[in-house]
Design a protein that fits this description.
- Belongs to the HIBADH-related family.
- It holds the Pfam family NAD_binding_2.
- This is 6-phosphogluconate dehydrogenase NADP-binding domain-containing protein.
- InterPro entries: 6-PGluconate_DH-like_C_sf (IPR008927), 6PGDH_NADP-bd (IPR006115), HIBADH-related (IPR015815), HIBADH-related_NP60_sf (IPR051265), NAD(P)-bd_dom_sf (IPR036291).
- The structure is a single chain.
- This protein is of the alpha/beta class and 281 residues long.
- It folds into two domains: 163 residues, Rossmann fold; 99 residues, N-(1-d-carboxylethyl)-l-norvaline Dehydrogenase, domain 2 (Orthogonal Bundle).
- Helices cover 44% and strands 14% of the residues.
- Strands 1, 2, 3, 4, 5, 6, 7, 8 and 9 form a nine-stranded mixed beta sheet that branches.
- α7 links the parallel β8 and β9.
- α8 packs across α11.
- The protein is elongated and about 65 Å long.
- The model has no long low-confidence stretch (mean pLDDT 92).
């Protein structure tokens, strides 16, 4: 049994805590809003009141937070004076950073950890349904020793793809998200084109299933995946605010930003009825 802490119990963090509890680990969770720890606690997780308390006895710590600002605040206490998690990490602990943040922010975290603490950069592909099934695609970067220590736990969550040093996995995640989101933008335009040409929407979707937009269509019609529009916008900004010359990314970003409900699943980009999955927290 491994003592695991999950910092952040939003949709994905809650799903991770439940999955790890169900696979026999001793799990502790922390979230700024303690009311969002209810589902994890019901699955057997212990609830800590501060990040430092949560990690003090952990063998492995997972961060699954909204953005780089949240990662900074929770780990280093920027918004939680005296309660940052890093100060309480024991030598030998593995910190697995699963939040989707930029590679510069990722390496910045790794460079500031105390001696003896191992770091794994491990953003994931897949949503809450993949966590529950243990089928996440986990992009993992770090030293061979850090990866060796983390992989027995990560294998309970999905398949690990080693990507090299810390920071590389975060870059790969942004590339993959860019491909998925721009494909959804293309699907949006393709379905509008079909409508304009008088093609029945169901017929169009059936024909597109086996074409180049098949993957985007499967994601857009999923009833179990959960990726709010706001997070999709955040991820595209992590790439679009870098070098110029990506008009498709810029157009997709404008499409997403124009959607009226940024809390809905990103499938709302092609659906007239926004879907709001039940929040497991």
């Amino acid at each position: 049994m491994t003592a695991i802490t999950v910092l952040g119990t939003g949709r994905m963090g809650t799903a991770l805590a439940i999955r790890l509890s169900e696979t026999g680990h001793q799990v502790t969770v922390w979230n700024r809003d303690q009311s969002r720890t209810t589902a994890a606690a019901a699955a057997g997780a212990k609830v800590a009141t501060t990040p430092a308390e949560a990690v003090s006895a952990a063998d492995l710590v997972i961060t699954m937070l909204t953005d780089a600002h949240a990662v900074e605040a929770v780990l280093f206490g920027a918004a939680l004076p005296g309660d940052g998690a890093v100060a309480a990490l024991r030598s030998g602990t593995v910190l697995v950073q699963m939040s989707t943040i930029g590679p510069v922010e990722t390496t910045g975290v790794a460079d500031r950890l105390p001696d003896g603490v191992h770091f794994v950069d491990a953003p994931v592909g897949g949503s809450v349904d993949a966590v529950a099934a243990g089928t996440l695609a986990i992009l993992a970067g770090g030293t061979p020793e850090a990866l060796r220590r983390a992989e027995p736990v990560l294998h309970h969550l999905g398949t690990v793809r080693r990507c090299g040093a810390a920071g590389v996995a975060s870059s790969v995640k942004l590339m993959l998200n860019t491909a998925m989101l721009t494909a959804l933008g293309a699907l949006h335009d393709t379905l509008l084109t079909a409508e304009g040409l008088g093609i029945d929407r169901a017929v169009a979707a059936d024909l597109l299933t086996t074409g180049p937009l098949g993957g985007a269509l499967r994601r857009a019609t999923s009833t179990t995946a959960d990726f709010p529009v706001a997070l999709a916008i955040k991820d595209l900004h992590l790439t679009h605010d870098e070098p110029a010359g990506r008009p498709v990314v810029a157009a997709t970003l404008r499409l997403l930003e124009a959607l009226p409900d940024h809390t809905a699943d990103l499938s709302t980009l092609i659906s007239p009825a926004p879907r709001h999955p039940a929040d497991p927290a």
